[in-house]
Amino acid sequence: MMKKFYLIAAMMLTTVAVNAQQRLNLSTYAGTNLTKYADTECVVNANRFVCTGWNTLSLPFAVTEAELNEVFGTDCRLERLVGAELEGSGITLNFMDCKAEGIQPNVPYILYYSGEAANKQLTKTALVKAGESVVSYNASGITVTMFGANTKKESKGLYGILARDNAEAKFVSADDIPTGFYATRCGISLSNGTSTPLTARHLKAGEVTSITAIAGTNERVDVYNLAGQRVAGNIRVADMNNLPAAIYVVKGQKVMVK
Fold first, then answer.
1. What stretches of 12-76 adopt beta strand conformation (E)?
2. Domain residues of the chain, as ranges?
3. In 3-state terms, what secondary structure has residue 138?
4. Opening angle at CA 136, ends 51 and 65, nearest 5
5. How far apart are the C-alpha atoms of 80 and 112, rounded to whole Å?
6. Per-block average pLDDT, block size 10, for the chain (258 residues)?
7. 149 close to 185: Cβ distance less than 8 angstroms
8. Is residue 102 within 8 Å of 65, Cβ to Cβ?
9. Less crowded by CB within 10 Å, the N or C end of the chain?
10. pTM of the model
């Protein structure tokens, strides 16, 4: 009888330990060490303050379109950076609507929220993925990088969306933000510092973009037709204009050669 009691007690302790490991309260301020949760299915609880207008967001787990609608409202918008190009004295950031895809783990996004500024809570069972949240593009020799902060990050030398500019999704120098970037927020860095004005361009899902929006002139790329067949391999972007006029797929985006 005593052996059975010990066995039951051991099983109960094991169950408690497993449940503790499978629950993750994600800190969106100080950040969370995700190493021990990597590739583990957890009950994730994330509380995130959002302003009215454009916000940035990066999470270590997937969120469906239906879940986005439930938390942020059916008129919320989700966009990801698909390219950057130098235009005049500034850089245009090309963001494409990707709400139908939902949020993918460790991808930086901008999120439009039309309600009153508030704290939003998302609780779900999800597979946690640890890793960097970062995408980079070349804009005529200037490297544009959008990142998601896993822990609190200093803002010196970076761009961020300030609350007063949210309505325009305007990224401005964050040099003077004393609080820095909190976890789950996203920022942008340029290889030439923070002197270049940034402008956001909003593209519809699957909208055709210019080749310079997603790759640098001297960058080498593979080119596919709309049927998925490769029509040119490892060619310079500048040489794409020698291809027959058509719509092609480069780096996962549709581009037009006229």
1. 23-26, 40-50, 53-57
2. 2-207, 208-258
3. strand
4. 45
5. 12
6. 47 46 86 91 95 96 98 97 89 94 97 95 96 90 94 93 77 88 95 94 84 75 90 89 87 83
7. yes
8. yes
9. N
10. 0.80
Q: Is 207 left (phi over 0), alpha (psi -120 to 50) or beta?
A: beta
- The SS3 call for residue 243 is coil
DSSP per residue, 183-224: TT-EEEEETT-S-S-EEEEEE-TT--B-GGGTS-TT-EEEEE
**Residue recorded with tokens 């039951």:** 8
Bridge partners, 100 (sequence order): none
Q: Phi-psi bin for 39: left (phi > 0), alpha (psi -120 to 50), beta?
A: left
Token pair of 128, please? Answer: 């946690």
Structure tokens at 107: 């991808």
Residue 165 burial (CB count, 10 A) = 14
Buried b (16+ CB within 10 A) or exposed e, 182-218: bbbbbbbbbeeebebbbebbbbeeeeebebbbbbbee
Rounded CA gap, 190 and 202, in Å?
20
Distances in Å between the alpha carbon of 97 and those of 16, 65, 202?
A: 42, 12, 7
The residue type found at 169 is: A
Please state, as a whole number, how many other Cβ atoms lie within 10 Å of the Cβ of residue 106.
18
Question: Residue 99 has which token pair?
Answer: 């709400």
- The number of residues in the chain equals 258
Q: What would you report as the CA-atom Rg of the chain, rounded to the nearest whole angstrom?
A: 22
